Amino acid sequence: DIGDVGRKYHLELVLEDVLDKDGTVNCTAEVLYHLGNKNTAPDVHFTIEGELKNTDEADNVFYNRIQSLEKELVAENIPDNHGNVSPEMEPIHLLAWAASGYVIWQNSTENTKFQLAQIKHVKQVKRSDEHLEFDYMILLHEMVSQEIIPWQMRVLWHPQHGVQVTQDSRQPKH
Amino acid sequence: MRALVLLAALVAAAAGTETFVGHQVLRIVPTNDEELQMVQELQELEDLQLDFWLAPRSPGHPVDVRVPFPSLQPLKAHLEANGISYSIMIEDVQTLVDDEQMEMLRSHRRLPFSTATFDYTSYHSLDEIYAFMDLLVAENPNLVSKLEIGQSTENRPIYVLKFSKGGTNRPAIWIDTGIHSREWVTQASGVWFAKKIVLDHENDEGLASILDKMDIFLEIVTNPDGFAFTQAQNRLWRKTRSKQSGSRCVGVDPNRNWDAGFGGSGASKNPCSETYHGPYANSEPEVKAIVDFVKNHGNIKAFISIHSYSQLLLYPYGYTRTPVPHQKELHEISEKAVAALSSLYGTKYKYGSIITTIYQASGGTIDWTYNEGIKYSFTFELRDTGRYGFLLPAKFIVPTAEETWLALKVIMEHARDHPY
Fold it and tell me: Is B44 a catalytic residue?
């Protein structure tokens, strides 16, 4: 506990690559949850020991594939009811994971535990620059309340520039 | 006759379509010979592409005809102009066709022929699971029987399978899956457990000796209304489907509806919440059915309620921080059970009391069963830890069921070896 400021957690964790179970990396982090104002995201500082895997090749394959589509990409229910994600949609799924991480961070308190449950809908947004842009409607599962929360987010991505959530908004339940 | 030619001309531009979008089925009842003749003449007009489901017969007998969309307006005008009344039996034929297609696709996985050919590696509908149960009983009448312990809010039967080698009211083990309908890996695992018991009841020493002394009760679809809803409407539905007075929201969390700390912290009094406890304890027929069964049986020694996801093995309490008297023993059993589970595929589980491991939850199943005197009360949260969550791919059903079974056996063997 830190006086009138909040509560700080010191964490030692192991990061595991979902695509490669043997790819683990140690990480230390400090998370400060602010007292009082629950509208501020917790402060996070972290250090990764060593390096994350290089994904340039896969990134470029995905990037080129989307750029060469004749029509803007549109998809829904990823995974589907039975947990299936088609190979073509896997990068779209992973991108949503990364982007939802940002949304989750911005909305987390000591009493929440969010997971991405499903992509309800995703639509590519045409751009004049070299970035890819997607408009996602996702469902977040919040563990403590057990609620399924629809959330809309605009995601920008480029192989060299990484992921950015430019806009997001929580949606009403029904 | 001229009128008919005019009618045909109006429809001349009819484009032939493959589908039945906008097609209607009309019922015409000619009341006299004149009307009858008029209707019979319609059969001659090929351009209208009328499809008579019930052909004209005699006055007073209905004539049913499928009318393609382009012919609808002209035909109706023609009938009305001649004072022939009709009614619309089917508003849009394509809708019915689509519904049937979906139904066929669903049962194209078809009702199973035997539990040997049943596909344990995929998710099944309620009908398929109920059919599986009947097959299992039919194939193993000396071991398995099916009990109806109640009915859901929407009047679906609630079934429990009983595995018994004989005796009367032997001490028993209870296992339920699917109390939260969106946790699909649990119902699927329940089906696998049922088959596993049948396969192993003679050749597996541990299971054989358990069944020598105890019965096993297995409720696979504990929340059938919710389950049907996850298939038809909303894959992520959790609760029951009971209507709540004064609210537009539906359903009660069946794992907050038990009479243990009911209504306290760790449940919501808001009917729209996923953890709504309901108007009073046991308000949900799905919960009441089990309560009645447990009380009437009077000899249940182990009670295991299965959920997903999070990979946890939990024992009471959820509603209070006060540890249960048998905390030490339950903790040791959990440690052993989790080790057994892990031994198969390395799946990591955490374990402990509900309140210290997951969160505070009041009105929970195993808090009630423990307070009823069922010492070995446990809850599982199966795979995974959030990558797929509720939407666990079907390929993980069998591995999940296999590893969980090892943990269940530890609990069951302990109950067998420690009668009370």
Answer: no
